[in-house]
Every structure is written in C-alpha cells, then in structure tokens.
Amino acid sequence: MTAPGLPSGGGCRTAPVIKERGQREVFCGLTGIVWLHRKMQDAFFLVVGSRTCAHLLQAAAGVMIFAEPRFGTAILEEGDLAGMADAHEELDREVAKLLSRRPDIRQLFLVGSCPSEVIKIDLSKAAERLSQRFAPRVRVLNYSGSGIETTFTEGEDACLASMVPVLPRTEARELLVVGALPDVVEDQMVGLLEAMGIGPIRLLPARRIDDETAVGPNTVFALAQPFLGETHAALLRRGARHLAAPFPFGEEGTTAWLAAIAREFGVDAETFERVTAAPRARARKAVAAAARTLSGKTVFFLPDSQLEIPLARFLARECGMTPVEVASPYIHDAIHGPDLDLLPAGPRIAEGQDVDLQLDRVRADRPDLTVCGLGLANPLEAEGLSTKWAIELVFTPVHFYEQAGDLAALFARPLRRKALLKLEAAE
C-alpha cells in the first residue's frame, strides 16, 4: 500500500493563503440538524430560537405537517427577548413537556441560535441542570448553531464536540470513525474495513446512545468529514490520536483514506488489494463517464461547506478540471494538509470570505463552473456563469467508492445543462 504520488508540479500545502475577513454569504449552523437528527435515532434537537429558526429548519428538512420529527424550536417571544420573562423557567417547562410526550428520546441537544446568544441565555447551565433532573434516562447536552459566527457545517462539528467529553473512557485499541454519513454509505465503509480484519469499529455519531462508542489513549480516529476542527481538538484532549489522510472523495481519496487505516492496523498489501480492487475499478469507471464533460474545464470554489479543498483535489486529479481558486471558511493543516499535498499547484488558496472581493475575482476569471452558496448562485447564473450549489454536496451521499460517480456527476450536470441550452438556442 502506497500513498498517492504528489503531482508533478508539487502540491499546495505550502502555497500562500489569502486571508479574508469580510462580509460572508453562508447558511447558519442550525442546518446541520437536518442530517444529524436522521443519523442519531434516539436524539432530539431543541433549538432555542425564533420563529425564523423554526421556518428555516422546516424548509430545509421538508417536514410534512403530519410527521413527528426529532427536532423542534422553543420559540423565544417578545417578552423573552425584552428580558420580561424568565427564559430558563420556560425552557425547563418545554423540555419537561417534550420528554413526557416522547419517552423514546435518550439524548436531548439544546441548540443555541442567534436570538438566544444575543440575549445571552446560558444553555450550558441549562443542560447541566436538566441532565441532573432527567438522568439517567436522558442525557442533555448543548451547542451553538448560531449563524452569527458559524457556517452551516460547523453545526455538526459543534454537536459532535459537545459529545466527546461525556464519552466513556476505554483503554482498548480501537478505531473511531468521526463524522455523520448516510447509513448506506456508513455500512459500505464498515464493510470494507471489516473485510480487511479491522475492528472493532466505533462511530461518532453513533446511531444510538447505547452503542459502544468510547475514547481513550489507545483510540485512533479517522475523520470522514473535513469540517470537524473542534471535534478533532476535543478528541486529542481525550488522548486519542488522529490518522491524517486525504478525505474519501473519489477513488483516489477513498483508497488513500482506507490505506492510512490499513497501515495503522497492520493490514498486508495483498489483503488490501483483494478488498478494494473491485470497488476501485467500479469507481474509476463511473468517474470517467462524468470526467468526459469535466476535463479541461475550470472551477472556482467560494467558501461555504468546508468540503472545498478535498473536492478540488478530486476534480483536479480524477476529473481533469483546473481549479483557479479554492476558498474555504477555515483551513486546518492537520486536517486539510494531506489533500493540499495532492492538489496540483496553481490555484489561489483563500481562507475566510470577503464576498465582494471574491465575486470580483469570479467575474475576472470567468470559470466554467463556480461552486457557491444558494444566495450567490442565481445572480451568477444571470451573468452567464454556471454554478453548483455547495449545500447539495453536503446533503447528497458522495463519500467512498460506490458514490464516486455520483459525486463527479453533480459537477458535470450544470455544464451539460448549459451546453444543451446553447444548442437549443442555436436551433
């Protein structure tokens, strides 16, 4: 097993980084609840916020009125915002009503929002108080999903980081895979690792609180998502060790990610080849179909999902695209370094956002494809630029071998659509 070779022109790990701290265009961290509540089957996410927060979540999740989802909003009314009511008393009352009605809830997350942070409701104290009241049946934790300071994928990071301090301690040598994945993708990943003889495999987040996820000095962890900086730091504080690797997007990234784990657990090259050969071949074939559309095209990543760096690596090395700028809300060397090593030299690398300056560069570069948030896509489309919604890359299964073709197709689709529209216009 060998790591992917460096591109001939060198990588981007030591490239200068444009630091921008201006106006941002991103969703808030509450959006992460949409995929987290599906993943953790005995958890409930209670947003302490306004009606706007409730409308955002309902719109993002597409919840029918007859459904009973595992998230909700404790609405802050005018009296709460004006300091005329005791928000803690009201919160305790709402939590008690919720838990009496929903005995299936074993984990309750109090999620901070812009309104609750502006009026400085101390949700950490509320979580501690409610944990004591409802333990051991329910574990109550808190984190912030406020859009004041967070991008939308940071909601998951904050949620998982809040769980790390309360994970049981273990002395066992175990692999912990960190980051929420769709169940079907998670099952594929676990199947590949178990076929190599690696186990036990623990998951964060686990599907249920009773799953045996623990952490200790002999835990090694691999991140499945590139936006988990706070969770990474929290696990290091618990004594776990990080296995740095490119992220499992595309055939090359998935192979490198699996290879890092296989080396750690002493899997021989023959076993690794036997387990991965067939899915690798399928992934290469599926990616090649979309790469015919993508090859030779330019791509510009505006900072949004924190997936930008590994996706740029995938598009450059497996699909033949040329990134002209790769911007990400945050760049963490310990997390993103392996992908930056493999990203061919050439693109501008930017951290943070000053949206006006970045849009000026988009207009100057006129890339074939711009990956950006929903709020910027329509204006750029009106200017004749093809776009891809960054949020779609988070909500769609895109990790590991069997999804590699789907990932490439997400980028190819807007280019194909534009070509068809031009053809129809010419006729």
TrEMBL record:
Which pathway features in its UniProt record? Porphyrin-containing compound metabolism; bacteriochlorophyll biosynthesis (light-independent)
Chemical reaction(s) catalysed: chlorophyllide a + oxidized 2[4Fe-4S]-[ferredoxin] + 2 ADP + 2 phosphate = protochlorophyllide a + reduced 2[4Fe-4S]-[ferredoxin] + 2 ATP + 2 H2O
Q: Where are the transmembrane segments?
A: none
- Per UniProt, what is one GO molecular function of this protein? ATP binding
Q: How is the cofactor bound?
A: Binds 1 [4Fe-4S] cluster per heterodimer. The cluster is bound at the heterodimer interface by residues from both subunits.
The prosthetic group or cofactor this protein requires is: [4Fe-4S] cluster
Could you say which EC number(s) this protein's record lists?
1.3.7.7
**Organism superkingdom:** Bacteria
- Biological process (GO) annotations? light-independent bacteriochlorophyll biosynthetic process; photosynthesis, dark reaction
* Gene3D superfamilies listed in its UniProt record: Nitrogenase molybdenum iron protein domain
Q: Which residues form the signal peptide?
A: none
Q: Where is the Nitrogenase/oxidoreductase component domain?
A: 28-402
Amino-acid positions noted as binding [4Fe-4S] cluster in the UniProt annotation, renumbered to this chain? C28, C53, C114
Q: Which NCBIfam families match?
A: DPOR_bchN, PRK02842.1
Quaternary structure (record): Protochlorophyllide reductase is composed of three subunits; BchL, BchN and BchB. Forms a heterotetramer of two BchB and two BchN subunits.
Its annotated function is as follows:
Component of the dark-operative protochlorophyllide reductase (DPOR) that uses Mg-ATP and reduced ferredoxin to reduce ring D of protochlorophyllide (Pchlide) to form chlorophyllide a (Chlide). This reaction is light-independent. The NB-protein (BchN-BchB) is the catalytic component of the complex.
Question: Which HAMAP family does this one have?
Answer: ChlN_BchN
Provide the family line: Belongs to the BchN/ChlN family.
Q: Could you tell me what this protein is called?
A: Light-independent protochlorophyllide reductase subunit N
Q: Which gene encodes it?
A: bchN
